[in-house]
Every structure is written in C-alpha cells, then in structure tokens.
C-alpha cells in the first residue's frame, strides 16, 4: 500500500511548491518601489471667500515660483491663485488679512483658523481662504517684460511697497515685480532702458510709450517692451540654419514680392518656399509640359508689377543645347502663358527695360547654334 501512495505524495509536494512560488511572485510584484513610476505634476488652486480681504502666499518650491494670491470680498484671480507643483512636494500656505479684515479660516484641503497650512501634492488640491470684515480690499500689481531688450520698471518715490523690476532680454528677471496695494492706491510706473536699448511701449493695463498711471481698483498687470540694439547682422547679414529636405535642386531661384522663393531644377517641378516656416509648395507650370518643354535652362526677370517672366528652357526630348520657345509668368501663386518666342533659347538672358518691356538675348537654339537675334516681350506677346 505504501508503494502506491508515493506518487500521490510527489504530486502533492509539487503542487505545494508551485503555490508557494506563485505567492512569492505575486508578493514581489506588489512590492515594487513606487518611485520607479513617473508621477505627473499636481495643481494647487486657491480660492477666496468672505466679506474681507487679504493675501494667501506660498514660498518657492523647487523650480516653481512663489504664489501670491490676492482675495478681495471673495473675488480672486484664478491665474494668479493657481500653481502646478511636482508630485509629492509640500507647499506651505500662509494667509494674511489686510487692515480692517481678519482671517476667518480654511476649507477644502486645509482646515482650521491657523495662519499657515501645509498640503502635500500627491493629488490636485483645492484650498479656500475666508476673510471677514469690511476693511479696504487689497489688489495685486504684476509687472512683466517682452521684446528683445532690457531695462527697468520703477514706481513713484514714496510708494510702499515699491516696484523696482529688472527686465532682461524681454523677461522680468529680478527685483520687485509684484506687489499688493489697498484699493484706490495710485501707482505711477516709469520705464528706463539699458544703455543702447529702446523702450517700445506698454501693454496690458498700461499703453503708449510714456509714464503709466494706474488706480488700484482691481488686480492689474503691465508689460513693458524693450528692443535690443541691432547686432552686426543688421549690416552684414546672418546665416540661419540650413533647410533640409528640399524637393528640388535650386538651379533657378527668385525671391517674389510676397517674400517667398520660387525655385526649380532639372526634371523637377517648380516649388515655392516660405522662409518663415520652411514649407515647400509644389506649383507646376501647366503652360510648359511634355518631354519637349522643361523650365531648366530658362531665363527669367521681374516685371514692373512683381510678376516673374520666364522664357526659353530645355528640350528634354532632344537634350542639352536644344532651346525652347515657351514664355510664361508667375504671379506668386500660379502660372500664366505669355506667348512664345520665334527662336528656341537654351540659357538666354532676359532684361527688363524702363518702359516695362523685356528683351530676350542670346541662348542656344541647338548645339553649336546661338540665337543671335534679340526678341522683345511686350504686354504678353
């Protein structure tokens, strides 16, 4: 009987081992460290409530700039009162009432009536700060910069707190660029430029190029624009990065009056290039098609109205040196036929005359045979 039971015992033992191994595997997966997973940033939103006024602030956290949220009789700026923080970072909020008001307490992710509250950003948090009382509300003035230049923005002498904001290369970089003032406070802002730079004007709640005067009856924002002096590229030019992936070899290239470039090569359709975005657009010449009409080896010149006149070219069927008689114009977006020459011309020269007509000179009609007689183009003929 014992001999018959041994196989059963072996099967049971194997089943037990598999169950233990499975349990261990499950436990290993469940205890993988959380920090191995990338956690997205979380947003903290502060709101206001009550009849009073005050401010809710938070210091800089890692690379996130300080929070300054002004509350006046329950109103607040959602943009100024919202920040996005790294996951699991700790943010310390501080509530301070304006004169004549009192801090009434927190709600949402914070609670109690203490002046400070800490929140851990493991998820999006919403906090409400309530102020009581009927004192004068306080409003926030924010200064920003734009443009390429540098300078400073300062408030009038005697204002507390004073604005003294440094703008570097179009961005507010240092100094006091944000402050809060009680309602009806007058603020006068003056922009001063760095040496060689130019103040080009205000935007936001300020405008023009002179002194800006504001009354703090609401949250305000003013942006000062400065222009840097022209660099050497203004007189000697500057190379941009190369444009890769051109669809054609630009044997022929002309800059059009709309700022775009028209180009074509041998056996390739014409294209326009927008230098601003680097985009190429195919613009086939329907007036010149087939094996005996190729724009390669054509001559071209601009007309007085900005159109480009293209005449002559390459007979693809016969080969090099065999000119064609085609003539067409390009107006910046499409081609139009403009008559034919009497002689085929391969690499002619086109010259626009003072009266608006064009003379086509030279060019090869066939290998070894030069088109010696000039032809005049006038009004499309």
- Bin the strand percentage: 35-45%
Instruction: Classify the helix fraction into a percent range.
Output: under 10%
Order the strands across the largest sheet as they lie in space.
Answer: 12-11-10-14-16
Query: Could you name the ranges where pLDDT drops below 50 across 5 or more consecutive residues?
Result: 1-5, 10-36
Number of helices: 2
CATH topology of the largest domain, what is it called?
Neuraminidase
Question: SSE layout and pairings?
Answer:
Blueprint: H1 2-30, E1 42-49, E2 53-58, E3 67-72, E4 82-85, E5 90-97, E6 101-108, E7 116-120, E8 125-133, E9 138-147, E10 151-155, E11 164-168, E12 171-176, E13 178-182, E14 186-193, E15 198-204, E16 212-215, E17 220-227, H2 233-236, E18 252-255, E19 261-264, E20 271-274, E21 279-282, E22 299-302, E23 308-311, E24 324-330, E25 335-345, E26 349-352, E27 358-361, E28 364-366, E29 369-370, E30 375-377
């Amino acid at each position: 009987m014992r001999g018959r039971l041994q196989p059963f015992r072996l099967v049971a033992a194997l089943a037990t081992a598999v169950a233990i191994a499975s349990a261990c595997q499950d436990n290993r997966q469940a205890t993988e460290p959380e920090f191995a997973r990338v956690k997205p940033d979380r947003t903290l939103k502060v709101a206001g409530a009550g009849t009073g006024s005050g401010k809710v602030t938070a210091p800089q956290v890692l690379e996130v700039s300080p929070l300054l949220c002004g509350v006046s009789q329950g109103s607040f700026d959602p943009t100024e009162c919202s920040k996005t923080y790294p996951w699991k970072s700790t943010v310390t909020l501080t509530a301070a009432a304006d004169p004549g008001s009192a801090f009434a307490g927190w709600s949402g992710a914070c609670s109690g009536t203490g002046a400070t509250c800490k929140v851990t950003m493991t998820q999006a948090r919403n906090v409400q700060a309530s102020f009581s009382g009927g004192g004068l509300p306080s409003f926030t003035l924010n200064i920003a910069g734009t443009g390429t230049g540098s300078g400073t923005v300062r408030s009038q002498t005697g204002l507390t707190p004073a604005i003294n904001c440094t703008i570097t290369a179009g961005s507010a970089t240092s100094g006091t660029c944000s402050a809060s003032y009680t309602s009806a406070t007058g603020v006068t802002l003056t922009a001063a430029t760095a040496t060689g730079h130019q103040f080009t004007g205000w935007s936001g709640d300020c405008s023009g190029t002179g002194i800006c005067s504001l009354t703090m009856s609401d949250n305000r924002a003013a942006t000062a624009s400065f222009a840097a002096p022209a660099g050497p590229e203004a007189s000697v030019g500057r190379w941009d990065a190369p444009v890769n992936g051109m669809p054609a070899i630009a044997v022929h290239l002309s800059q059009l009056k709309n700022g775009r470039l028209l180009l074509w090569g041998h056996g390739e359709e014409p294209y326009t290039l927008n230098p601003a975005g680097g985009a190429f657009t195919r613009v086939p010449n329907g007036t010149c098609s087939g094996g005996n009409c190729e724009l390669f080896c054509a001559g071209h010149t601009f007309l007085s109205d900005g159109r480009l006149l293209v005449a002559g070219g390459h007979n693809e069927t016969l080969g090099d040196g065999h000119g064609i008689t085609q003539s067409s114009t390009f107006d910046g977006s499409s081609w139009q036929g403009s008559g034919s020459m009497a002689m085929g011309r391969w690499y002619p020269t086109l010259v626009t005359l003072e009266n608006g007509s064009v003379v086509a000179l030279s060019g090869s009609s066939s290998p070894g045979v030069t088109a010696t007689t000039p032809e005049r183009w006038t009004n499309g003929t």
